[in-house]
Amino acid sequence: CAAQPATQGALLELFAGSGNFTRALWSLGRDVIAIEQDHDASTSLAELVRREGAPVRVVQSDAGRALHHLW
Question: How many Cβ atoms from other residues are within 10 Å of residue 16's Cβ?
Fold first, then answer.
């Protein structure tokens, strides 16, 4: 039996940067939680998300710390 990708719930993107892959993820019709530690990159991504009205929650944090707080 082959594993199937989940079709519900938010997608988690670690090390999101300024959103190079984030746009592709939200275009799948899913909410995205994008985690990026770098202030400039996360600010740029947050501006993109606001401009596009995308279903993305941008979290500026170290990936390990963010995962600890998300779960």
Answer: 26
Tokens of 67: 């995962």
- What is d(CA 15, CA 34) in angstroms, rounded to the nearest whole number? 8
pTM over 0.90: no
Q: What is the pLDDT of residues 46-67, one digit of tens each?
A: 999 999 999 999 999 998 888 8
User: What b/e sequence results for 27-65 when a residue is b if at least 16 CB atoms lie within 10 Å of its CB, and e otherwise?
Assistant: eeeeebbbbbbeeebbebbbebbeeeebebebbbbebee
Total residue count of the chain as it appears in this document = 71
